[in-house]
What we know:
The two termini are 18 Å apart. The protein has 369 residues and is mostly beta strands. The protein has 2 helices and 37 strands.
Amino acid sequence: MQLNKCFSQICIALTIFFGSTVTSFATDTRMSIRIGDFNDGFARITVNDWQSIIDKTGNLVIKPFERLGNYSEGLVAAKINNKWGYVDVTGKQVIAPQFDFANDFNEGLAVIEIDGKWGFIDRTGKQVIAPQFTNEESFSEGLAIVEVKGKWGFIDKSGKQVIDPQFDDRAFFREGLARVQLNGKSGFINKTGSMVIVPQFEHYKVYDFHEGWAAIKIDGKFGFIDQLGKLVIAPLLDDLPTLSEGLASVNVSRKWGFINKAGDLVIAPQFDWVGEFHEGLAAVRVNGEFGFIDKTGKMVIKPHFYEISRDMGGSVVEGFKDGVVGVVLNHKVGYINHEGKWAISPEVLIKSVENYVFLVEQKKAKKID
């Protein structure tokens, strides 16, 4: 009871971001809180070295685990006694812990590792592609890239090699094309392995396709190409533009705005920074604070947040997902909805953390006993 009383006095004193999560430090308990993006109504929360899943009300739905993946396709990867398995959203074990590592399910299959080799399982835990690869990634548009003897190729969901290992780096299919590297240059192949856009770009100076366009960098300037490799926006932009929901961000004289796919300026450069549009809204920063605009440029949620959730690279704001986004206000973290109102208030989240910590301490005590 004394422990529970202690944590009921949690005071969030400092908040920062780490990866795609909001991290909050409670100085009186030296405790960090990280909240992730919602997916189909559930989000992962990390408190110090333990993880759980919360629902849209902010309540814990899974008891704390040492490590959890993200909720995906009805299951969550969970680390139990140094082995990985899967639980459902109630925390019930569905696939017994048996893997050295397990990734989130994607397109019905999940990447698993056994004795340094990688393969795929289905949602029953059956190995549909036996562990045999030195490296691999999740399926994307029906194909997965795998590494064989230092080269990368693609397999289908039966494990059949459909594009021979020949590329110098991993790649993913996006909108029917995959960005591949050969001899230090990058181009694009289709799903038959045919080269659609010949390798001509410096590696890491061409990006995956999104909404029919791919950003490219030539002589220090950014532009866009279409799926035939044709230049649609000349490389005249100083900073990497991102295309989302039909609009591309542009930086003009150190202020950000948006153009449409015709190249017309539709939202005048006026912001210190902008994110991508998600669910019709984009994050913007004005005088060090974050708010949200709609696709006309109207400020629908005024800038007053200290931070908002970011992707794993930490440079592009994810923005709204599943109707909510994580934010920091007055050194407290929670989720807001499209109207800027709390969907999960800091007070609710702190209460969940209090319950969470109590469960963790109970689990530790049982191990000691």
